[in-house]
Specification:
The protein is of the alpha/beta class. Bound molecules: pyridoxal-5'-phosphate (PLP). Pyridoxal-5'-phosphate (PLP) binds next to helix 4.
């Protein structure tokens, strides 16, 4: 059962159950205890002076954090050399970027990155002497022309936040690696289950564990996984910054990990059914979901991804905000709130126009982002149908 080394003969669903578990190490109980810990006591003075102990200090790891790190490594694949656990997805992003770049470096970031990623680049990284250029997510191998002698890293995210553009990450990675730059990816949407980041050339793979890993809208959490090339820098950076995740959140992330596979499969199936239903609606101009055949990113999604999660957007035909809000206010099963990846359905209205800089954002109508939860999908569709009826009563 103990998975000090992930068993590569096991399929993913099995690894989600077995990885990171060693019941005999804690009296046979199925799950590890939650270690609330700072001080670790040494048995003798000689041990203390020599730091001779399996664990040194709470911030540097406990049996609880070790269990989750081993579990995550088992699904990140054989190229994963280490994982750092962080107190939020944004902390995972900033830690990975701090690990990748230094003063005087140039950084390339997709224009469709999660907005707070941009804020970090435009404020703290800028203040520390790192220059960021935003690029069109569709650039592919053409990213070569944006490289400068001091370009040290490329930040990718696929599909893009809010608008779901795809990226040819293998093409970008081969350009970056030829110039000895690191490739970072925000892999929160697909998770390692549906996108093999290391197999596609990513060096530092980020998950906002707040979303699907937690899965229940009750934790803030982040992870960064690194390959052999980047793991030393990742561990040094996370350790030096003094970042560590709280033990209860680590435990809840590990609990979420066990059911990640079945939850994602259901989010995927329900979201596709709702997305296809939206495609038939007269109120809808376009559905922004890469697993739909109509999506411009579909070929890349099909080539590189093994699944789709429950988050997508749509563009409504031109209409008043009053009509859009009548639709949203009528919904009873879709909460209106940020974040996503929990068991419940959500909707927000969004607009990328005020922060994208490399690509124009002209969708042609109001835009809504949906997270499709684990409710019965036909109940969700009935709720949305009532929403459209309310929309029709407003001009
Ligand atoms: C939510 C999110 C984050 C940030 O995660 P937090 O835990 O909220 O800090 C990062 N990337 C993406 C794509 C997200 O959706």
């Amino acid at each position: 059962m103990s998975s000090k080394k992930p068993d590569s003969s096991q399929r993913t669903a099995t690894r989600l159950v077995t990885a990171g578990r060693d019941p005999q190490a804690h009296f046979g109980f199925v799950n590890p205890p939650v270690f609330h810990a700072s001080t670790v006591l040494y048995p003798t003075a000689a041990d203390q002076v020599a730091h001779r102990s399996r664990y040194q200090y709470g911030r540097r790891g406990t049996p609880t954090t070790e269990a989750l790190e081993q579990a995550l490594m088992a699904i990140d694949g054989p190229a994963c050399a280490g994982v750092s656990l962080l107190p939020s997805g944004l902390a995972a992003i900033s830690t990975a970027l701090f690990a990748a770049v230094s003063a005087g470096d140039h950084l390339l970031v997709t224009d469709t990155a999660y907005r707070p990623t941009r804020t970090f680049c435009d404020s703290i990284l800028k203040r520390f002497g790192v220059e960021t250029t935003y690029y069109d997510p569709a650039i592919g191998a053409g990213i070569e022309k944006l490289f400068r002698p001091n370009t040290r890293a490329v930040f990718t995210e696929a599909p893009g936040s809010q608008s779901f553009e795809m990226q040819d990450i293998p093409a970008i990675a081969s350009v970056a690696h030829a110039r000895d730059a690191l490739v970072l990816m925000d892999n929160t949407w697909a998770t390692p289950l549906y996108y093999d980041a290391f197999g596609k050339g990513v060096d530092l793979s980020i998950q906002a564990g707040t979303k699907y890993l937690g899965g229940h809208s009750d934790i803030m959490f982040g992870t960064v996984s690194a390959n052999e090339r980047a793991v030393g820098r990742l561990k040094d950076t996370a350790g030096t910054l003094g970042l560590c995740a709280g033990p209860d959140d680590v435990f809840l992330a590990l609990r979420g990990f066990r059911t990640l596979g079945v939850r994602l499969a259901q989010h995927q199936a329900s979201a596709l059914k709702v997305a296809r239903w939206f495609e038939q609606r007269p109120e809808v101009l376009r559905v922004l979901h890469p697993a739909l055949e109509s999506n411009p990113g579909h070929a890349l999604w099909k080539r590189d991804f093994t699944g789709a999660s429950g988050l997508f957007s749509l563009v409504l035909k031109p209409m008043s905000d009053r009509a859009v809000h009548a639709f949203m206010d009528e919904l009873t099963l879709f909460g209106m709130g940020y974040s996503w990846g929990g068991f419940e359905s959500l909707v927000i209205q969004f607009d990328c126009a005020d922060y994208r800089t490399a690509t124009p954002w002209q969708p042609g109508g109001p835009t809504l982002r949906f997270h499709i939860g684990l409710e019965d999908v036909d109940d969700l569709i009935a709720d949305l149908d009532r929403g459209f009826a309310a929309m029709a009563k407003v001009s």
